[in-house]
Request: fold
Amino acid sequence: MFEYLIFFFFAAVAVIFALVVILHRNPVVGALSLVVSFFALAVMYVLLDAPFMAALQIIVYSGAIMVLFLFVIMLLNLQHEKEPSTRPVQQWLGYLTSSAFAISLVYYLGKYAVMSGALPVPFIADARAIGRRMFEAYIFPFEAVSILLLAAIVGALMLTGRSEQRENTSGEVIR
Amino acid sequence: MTHSYLPILIMLAIAAVFGATFLSLNWVVGRHQRNPSKLDPYESGVPLLDVNRKRVNVRFYQIAMLFIIFDIEAAFLYPWAVIYREGALSSRATAMFLFTEMLVFILLLGVGYVYVWKKKAFDWK
Reply:
């Protein structure tokens, strides 16, 4: 019973702040609301007996991805505190489509997804279980991840292109 | 299982109550006076030099991306660290296996680290 209370409270928090993310006109407020939404999702993971996922949610998403979003917002060079609302037709079409999608998603999940009863096997996804699976069954993907991260490092440096020539040609130095 | 996370929930609640209490106490007890000096920078602050909503250097973004990548690397260390002790106690071969696998993982990312270092991405020239 107590867990239901926690679930509904944090589910409401997650949904409300997710709505703030898409409805608020100030992008920085949106980004910070996303953090709150991520934290509420971490609580969901704890309730699902997946504490390691909860920790990762906070470490990676709330920590790192958020910083990236904030820098994207700053890179976009938004001069105005608030954007004026443009193109009402598209706006209402967007509201209509997304609410239709949400309603059909809830309907089909309620109809077809198995939501009754407990899982057939006890589902534990703590760090120990994940570590054991990682080094037993998924040892090759685990090593492949390091190659992937290596490629990501090179890609990150390439994307932000900081070779000496380019810096000279671009000229404009912004603090 | 979930009950062991109750202290965290209690801590969250205490933090929320604490913050709300002192903000509202400030609002209730304090006098509401608005004058221009209240909006000035603090005693040790500097006056505003420029608008704050301007494009920032791409280097911030680059550092953030590199941070994410090494953060994810660290995330892979946690499950390894949790299982390493019992794996190492079970047999010598398991211990060597676990140790070498993580060593390869870290060495591969170490190559990336050296690459970033040599590219002078950490330097704020």
